[in-house]
């Protein structure tokens, strides 16, 4: 746990969160924060499950506060180990979260550190008038500052950085972190080590991974010996305009899927008999029944539009 605390860079957080910090630097509302806490944080922070700092415990909260406002709020907003982003409640605003953190610190006799400040303030200073933003920064915190780390994704702080893909089951927002069975599941990053890497979804190129023999999925749920009937037939769909033509490969599909997944409900099995357009695909029809849901998404244009026409500007 503490390893993570140090690893996450306070510097990154302050860059990414500077907007949040500026807008709510002096605005933490402890009463409103209690309401948020009662609704969204108390389930873990009352009893301290999984090491959550307990409400009312100065021992638990002092070292957290010492990390400084930016780090604390970054973790509350974006998550930390078993702490889900925004307490698992994405509808809570930045101010709700700031207030709830301020409330929990207050319950422990601490104050939310000021923007840019590092050290926790003891409660006695609380009675004073709100400090102007220009108050001199307190002495540097005892906590070592993490070495400058590459920012996650600078242009979009909601986008997950590489080290956040495929989180372990207890942190993925799908499995119950309170169930000990969750901790017995193999983390995906360990299970998928050595798979061909992709650029979307779970970052695995499943076509190449199957080709490489790294996986041998069972074709039939009940019959372990059943083999797929692989049909190697490409259907080229010409595309008007400059976009490369679409090659629909039966091979890559029938390695995973039975003919009945597509024929006849999604596609009439006759070349050219089906009207297919990007609009339909984006609406989740035709190829879009799977692509963007259980297969690679439409953003990977060139995997479908793979047949270069002459005089096209597109590189293969
Ligand atoms: C599902 C359980 C859970 C819920 C719900 C939850 N937390 Fe947490 N929280 C944790 C755990 C566990 C930690 C300790 C994480 C660690 O240090 O590994 C934590 C730590 C924190 C920290 C300290 C972060 C740090 O950098 O040390 C803050 C702040 C925090 N939570 C705020 C909140 C707020 C605000 C809410 C409600 C909106 C909330 N939490 C809801 C489990 C939870
Ligand atoms: C992932 C969906 C999908 C699966 C699975 C699939 N097909 Fe197709 N099939 C298509 C599409 C798309 C076309 C092209 C339709 C068009 O051009 O309008 C097609 C066309 C065909 C054609 C027409 C070929 C021609 O030249 O006219 C036949 C025959 C066919 N499929 C048989 C099969 C068989 C047999 C299987 C199982 C081994 C199968 N398909 C599995 C999507 C699929
Ligand atoms: C899952 C496969 C797939 C992906 C990914 C994909 N396309 Fe398509 N695209 C198709 C198919 C199939 C057609 C229909 C071709 C036809 O007319 O039969 C099509 C048609 C088109 C057309 C022709 C006009 C239209 O709307 O039908 C354009 C332009 C186009 N795609 C652009 C793109 C761009 C740009 C991307 C990436 C952002 C993309 N496509 C990604 C399968 C795909
Ligand atoms: C029933 C589900 C389903 C439908 C419908 C479907 N696909 Fe796929 N497709 C898959 C799956 C699953 C894979 C393999 C896993 C992956 O690559 O994400 C795949 C793989 C592919 C690949 C192989 C890419 C590679 O790297 O070799 C192409 C190309 C492709 N699809 C294009 C299409 C086009 C074009 C259509 C519509 C004409 C279509 N698919 C319709 C499920 C589907």
Task: Describe the structure concisely.
With 316 residues, this protein is mainly alpha-helical. It is built from eleven helices and four strands. The protein has two domains: 158 residues, Orthogonal Bundle (Cytochrome Bc1 Complex, Chain D, domain 2); 71 residues, Cytochrome C3.
Assigned CATH superfamily of the largest domain: Cytochrome c-like domain
Q: Specify the structural class.
A: mainly alpha
Q: Which strand order does the major sheet show? A: 1-2
Low-confidence runs of at least 5 consecutive residues: 1-25, 119-135, 139-148
- Distinct helical segment count: 11
Mean model confidence by pLDDT: 81
H and E order: HHHHHHEEHHEEHHH
From the structure above, extract its key features.
316 residues; mainly alpha; Cytochrome Bc1 Complex, Chain D, domain 2; Cytochrome C3; 2 domains; two-stranded antiparallel sheet; 29% helix; elongated; binds heme C
Walk me through the structure.
The protein is 29% helix and 4% strand. It contains eleven helices and four strands; from the N terminus they run ααααααββααββααα. Strands 1-2 form a two-stranded antiparallel ribbon. α2 packs across α5 (69-78). The longest helix is centred in the N-terminal third of the chain and has 16 residues, at 30-45. The radius of gyration is 26 Å and the shape is elongated. The structure holds heme C (4 copies).
Secondary structure: elements and pairs:
Layout (H helix, E strand, L loop, with lengths): L1 H6 L2 H14 L6 H16 L12 H8 L3 H10 L15 H14 L2 E2 L9 E2 L65 H4 L14 H6 L22 E4 L8 E4 H5 L23 H5 L18 H4 L12
Antiparallel strand pairs: 1-2, 3-4
The structure holds heme C (HEC) (4 copies).
């Amino acid at each position: 746990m503490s390893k993570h605390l140090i690893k996450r860079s306070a510097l990154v957080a302050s860059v990414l969160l500077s907007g949040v910090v500026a807008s709510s630097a002096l605005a933490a509302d402890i009463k409103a924060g209690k309401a948020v806490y009662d609704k969204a944080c108390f389930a873990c922070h009352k009893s301290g499950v999984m090491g959550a700092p307990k409400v009312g415990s100065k021992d638990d909260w002092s070292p957290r506060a010492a990390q400084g406002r930016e780090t604390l709020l970054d973790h509350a907003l974006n998550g930390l180990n078993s702490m889900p982003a925004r307490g698992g409640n994405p509808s809570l605003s930045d101010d709700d979260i700031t207030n709830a953190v301020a409330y929990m610190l207050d319950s422990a006799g601490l104050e939310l550190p000021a923007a840019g400040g590092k050290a926790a303030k003891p409660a006695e200073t609380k009675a004073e008038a709100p400090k102007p933003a220009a108050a001199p920064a307190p002495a540097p915190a005892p906590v070592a500052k993490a070495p400058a780390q590459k920012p996650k994704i600078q242009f979009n702080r909601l986008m997950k950085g590489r080290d956040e893909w495929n989180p372990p089951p207890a942190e993925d927002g799908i499995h119950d972190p309170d169930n000990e069975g969750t901790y017995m599941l193999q983390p995906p990053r360990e299970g998928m080590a050595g798979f061909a890497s992709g650029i979307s979804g779970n970052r695995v190129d499943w076509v190449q991974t199957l080709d490489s023999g790294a996986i041998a999925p069972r074709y039939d749920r009940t019959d372990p010996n059943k083999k797929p009937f692989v049909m190697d037939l490409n259907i080229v769909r010409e595309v008007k305009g400059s976009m490369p033509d679409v090659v629909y490969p039966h091979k890559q599909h029938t390695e995973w899927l039975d003919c009945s997944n597509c024929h006849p409900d999604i596609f009439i099995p006759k070349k050219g008999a089906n009207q297919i357009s990007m609009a339909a695909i984006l609406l989740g029809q035709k190829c879009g029944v799977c692509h963007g849901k259980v297969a690679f998404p439409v953003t990977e244009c060139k995997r479908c539009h793979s047949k270069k026409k002459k005089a096209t500007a597109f590189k293969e």
